[in-house]
Design brief:
Blueprint lengths: L12 E3 L5 E3 L8 E6 L6 H12 L1 H6 L2 E7 L3 H10 L5 E4 L4 H6 L12 E5 L5 E6 L4 H17 L1
Parallel strand pairs: 3-4, 4-5
Antiparallel strand pairs: 1-2, 3-6, 6-7
Length: 153
């Protein structure tokens, strides 16, 4: 069952590009999280999407949200990808796609890992899900719009 709006976001522990382990529960009560699943480091669409998050990262920080990218690539691959494109946020290695499957962000067109973004509030509740393989910048725009709506409440 895919995670949907109103669900409590499933917790996880995954290795980051800096060698640390990140748990979703670490952000509970502190920050909203924009969790985006993407297919592969350094591919054209994933680079466009990640750089769009990078370019708006300060806006996300101002909205009291943390951006976290997830793919099945290794931590070393994430480290190279983040350095090459000056990505200021965390990238997590989901070997075997266990967390991707937990969230239901699985294969697009039955071939590629899906490109799905979840906006999770400070209480750990999913407030928005954006699923689009080709609207790379839409993931950023829709996430920011959702965070602005949450702040207005």
């Amino acid at each position: 069952m895919p995670v949907k709006v109103g669900d409590t976001a499933p917790d996880f522990n995954l290795p980051a590009q800096n060698g640390s382990t990140v748990s979703l529960k670490d952000f509970r009560g502190k920050k909203a999280v924009v969790l985006y699943f993407y297919p592969k480091d350094d591919t054209p669409g994933c680079t466009t999407e990640s750089c769009a998050f990078r370019d708006q990262y300060e806006v996300f920080k101002t909205a009291d949200a943390e951006v976290i990218g997830v793919s099945a690539d290794s931590s070393e691959s994430h480290q190279r990808f983040a350095a090459k494109h000056q990505l200021p946020f965390t990238l997590l290695s989901d070997k075997g796609d266990q967390v991707r499957k937990l969230y239901g962000a699985t294969a697009a067109f039955g071939l590629f890992p899906g490109r799905v973004t979840y906006v999770i509030d400070q209480e750990g509740v999913v407030r928005y899900v954006f699923d689009s393989m080709f609207n790379f910048k839409g993931h950023v725009e829709e996430s920011l719009k959702t965070l602005q709506q949450l702040a207005a409440k």
